[in-house]
Amino acid sequence: MHIVITGASKGLGRAIALAFARKGQQHFYCCARNIAGLEVLKAELLAINPAHVVHMFAVDMAHETSVKNFAHSCLAMATPDIVINNAGQFIPGNVHNEAEGALRQMLDVNLMSAYHLTRALLTAMMQQQSGHIFNVCSIASLAAYTGGGAYSISKFALAGLSQNLREELKPYGIKVTAVYPGAAYTDSWIGSGVSEQRIMEANDIAAMVTAAASLSPQACVESILLQPQLGPL
Q1: Whole-angstrom Cα distance, residue 70 to residue 73?
Q2: Which is nearest to 57 in space by CA: 39, 80, 40, 43?
Q3: What Cα–Cα distance (Å) separates residue 13 from each residue in 9, 52, 230?
Q4: What is the pLDDT of residues 188-213, one digit of tens each?
Q5: Residues 183, 233: Cα–Cα separation, whole Å
Q6: Mapping DSSP to helix (H, G, I), strand (E, B) and coil, where does residue 41 land?
Q7: 22-53 pLDDT, tens digit each
Q8: Which domains does the chain have, with CATH numbers?
Q9: How far is 75 from 72, CA to CA, in rounded Å?
Q10: Which of 6, 33, 93, 127 would bridge with 149, disulfide CB 3.0–4.6 Å?
Q11: Helical packing angle, 11-21 and 202-213, nearest 10°
């Protein structure tokens, strides 16, 4: 399969890439801002299976031109079978007091990156009459919370994008899955005082994504909602 993953150098993106790597020979098209992290991921993917074909791109997903250039680079090699819109950023705050520009930044990274990338890839995928798009949303897409501010707004919007794409793409054989993870232990939690045993593993979300991607063409998991066993923090 040809798999596009944004925000792949760490966290959920990295876990999802490694999970697909264990499912057989793949072609990966991964991007992140951190090229050093991508090179580490490339080595990890090839250690799992040297037959993997791995392409890494340094991309700032907040910039429309960079996103479109990444899409065109991918399409120059193949039409994607799977697209993982995972790139994201969290700036804490409330609407009344968060930093000026926080909403624009969150919309650019958490919503517009997925919008521009998906639009750029869709013509080829629609012609192929197959594919699967995963948008990594958040439980913040479903319920507002204090301190969520612009982040929650942007993730609500990403959930809306997912629902619209799902309806539009049904006739073309393209599946759309919105992923709503609660707290999962990644690098961002290091030093926070939260125990790894209290929240989910990144591999939990990755396992659900790869399972949803393995179903028959007639079946679509429209949403994946995961929470820590003990509930939200």
Answers
A1: 5
A2: 39
A3: 7, 17, 24
A4: 777 788 888 888 999 999 999 999 99
A5: 8
A6: helix
A7: 999 999 999 999 999 999 999 999 999 999 99
A8: 2-226 (3.40.50.720)
A9: 5
A10: 93
A11: 50
